[in-house]
Amino acid sequence: MKHIYCFWGGLVPDNFDDLEGLQEKGCVAFKSFIGPVSPDYSSLSYGQAYEAMERIKAFGGRAGFHCEDFSMIKWQEQRMIKEGRLDWQGFLDSRPVIAEMVATVDIIEIAKATGC
């Protein structure tokens, strides 16, 4: 059996100047998060996503996003904490489907505007 794989580059706020070089070295696309992730990986704001997509479009690259509306989730997280809902269900409830829908629509509109 033949195994095929590819590399995605990370798309974070402080590596925009490195993206074209990463593509030249073999990255097929760049992944970022719109929404809270972890202390080890920085999410992009919508403004940063716009700039990143402009740059990626300029060299013919591709971008992929894990979309969750940051402000909605942060608000819901605080709400769960205030309500003492620190269990697994509280975590899930802090990330409602609408947070993904809102962020996905926004990223699609930015992609349309930039042509990326």
Describe the 3D structure.
This protein is globular. The longest helix has 18 residues, at 97-114. By secondary structure, it is of the alpha/beta class. Helices cover 48% and strands 15% of the residues. The protein is built from five helices and three strands; from the N terminus they run E-H-E-H-E-H-H-H. It has helices at 19-24, 46-58, 70-82, 88-93, 97-114; strands at 7-10, 27-34, 63-67. Strands 1-2-3 form a three-stranded parallel sheet. The termini are far apart.
Order of helices and strands: EHEHEHHH
From the N-terminal CA to the C-terminal CA, the straight-line distance is 34 Å
Mean pLDDT, nearest integer?
95
Order of strands across the widest beta sheet? 1-2-3
Q: What gyration radius follows from the Cα positions, in whole Å?
A: 16 Å
Unreliable stretches: none
> What can be said about the biggest beta sheet?
3 strands, parallel
Shape: globular
How many strand elements? 3
The assembly state of the depicted protein chains is single chain
Helix content: 40-55%
Structural class: alpha/beta
Give the count of helical stretches: 5
The portion of residues forming beta strands comes to 5-15%
